[in-house]
Design goal:
Layout: E1 3-7, H1 12-23, E2 27-32, H2 35-47, E3 52-56, H3 62-71, E4 75-80, H4 95-123, E5 126-131, H5 135-138, H6 144-164, E6 169-176, H7 190-200, H8 209-220, E7 231-234
Parallel strand pairs: 1-2, 1-4, 2-3, 4-5, 5-6, 6-7
Length: about 240
């Protein structure tokens, strides 16, 4: 049996990804810093008949992450999804906050990818999907630290795809647009933000977490077996590449 590891699985996007991969027939290991949110995910997946294990841990804790991958020693899929999303003007961002964002969104991806890739190389193959963001394109104000990590996620994807390809490990990225999740709670005017999103998208509706999960499913499944090093934009036609 092989396992799909999904980080940030307590949030809407991570939960939808875990749900879809379980429906695809994978055992899933779900990871989140919030034990309460993670328990909700675990209960939902178990109720649907999924084979699921859950780890409440902080990706900044390399030892805890390593211990999880020691327990999950049959990783065939990794979805690096966990991220933090603070918002404040660049000139007001304290270095400690910047370091914290890097520790979760960039260093956390690195730690998980390295641990998972070691197992995949030994097994002769696997798939890693890094979740990036539309924010890396736009130069949006007040999100400099987050945007920097999401640009790094794409660069890491390409580097790992090149290096791990000879071992049969595929590495791709998905770059979501503005999905309606708890991350939007940082915006002081939700209705105004919703109008802003729809004004910019070619498709005049909001996307759903399940639609993002479907793309992750594709990138981890056999229909994308000749794809690696790619970033797929899932943003309703806001940014086209």
């Amino acid at each position: 049996m092989s396992t799909a590891v999904v980080t940030g699985a307590g949030g809407a996007l991570g939960r939808a990804i875990a749900r879809r991969l379980a429906a695809d027939g994978h055992a899933v290991a779900v990871v989140d810093v919030s034990a309460e949110a993670l328990e909700d995910t675990r209960r939902e997946l178990e109720a649907a008949g999924a084979r699921v294990r859950a780890w409440a841990l902080d990706l900044r804790d390399a030892d805890a992450v390593g211990g999880m991958f020691t327990s999950v020693d049959d990783t065939s899929i990794l979805v690096n999804n966990a991220a933090i999303y603070p918002s404040r003007p660049f000139l007001d961002i304290p270095l400690a906050e910047y370091d914290d964002v890097q520790a979760v969104n960039q260093r956390g991806y690195w730690i998980c990818a390295q641990a998972a890739a070691r197992q995949m190389v030994r097994a002769g193959g696997g798939a890693i999907v890094n979740i990036a963001s539309i924010v890396r394109h736009g130069g949006w104000a007040d999100l400099a630290s987050y945007a920097a990590t999401k640009g790094a996620a794409v660069a890491l994807t390409r580097a790992l795809a090149r290096e791990l390809g000879p071992s049969g490990v595929r590495v791709n990225a998905v770059s979501p647009g503005a999905f309606p999740t708890a991350a939007e709670e940082i915006h002081p005017d939700p209705e105004g933000y919703n109008r802003f999103v729809l004004d910019h998208q070619a498709l005049k509706r909001r996307g759903t977490p399940d639609e993002l999960a479907a793309v992750v499913s594709f990138l981890t499944g056999p229909d994308s077996s000749f794809m690696t090093g790619q970033t797929i934009e899932v943003n309703g036609g806001w940014v086209m590449s």
